[in-house]
Amino acid sequence: MRNLIFFMHSSLDGFAAGLNGELNWINVNEEIFDFVGTMTEKADTALYGRVTYEMMQSYWPDAGNKPNASKHDKEHSAWYSKVSKVVLSKTLSKEGQDNTIVISDQLADRINKIKEQDGKDILIFGSPSASHSLLSLGLIDEFWIFVNPVLLGEGIPLFKGVTEITKLNLLETKTFTCGVIALHYEKKRSK
Description:
eight-stranded mixed β-sheet; 2 domains; alpha/beta; 29% helix; 10 strands
């Protein structure tokens, strides 16, 4: 069974984005990009909500080909182009979406079928609303939370829709020079 892994930046006070989806408070650098690159090597599917997917589609397919492309842009663009993409959306058209599955209903059944297929991990990047839906259904297996040294005071919460206690095991932590601390948890399995 493949793992669905949640990758999200968070403010210290638990927000995944500002009230209007702002992400300008996130600390990223080559050290974090290189670290995330080691995670993407273990995944062959990316899962997004519609808003994040459209943002990704507007940048990543050609990012590695630009004259000023960074090492990260080249590597992530190549990865993005080859992985399967799953988008949770009730409004996105399924037509013309290359290497992309759009899920608009039966979320738990359809995600579980994808998890049962042969393959590597499935990563969900950002996508707070989609993550909230997946959390409420208990579909996320692991969590990578990149805690940024900032207090937002308000915004889109990191966790929402959790309807029952979900116990986690801390697997590892990593501290980056920019002050971000990555926390890696897995959901405790029922006995």
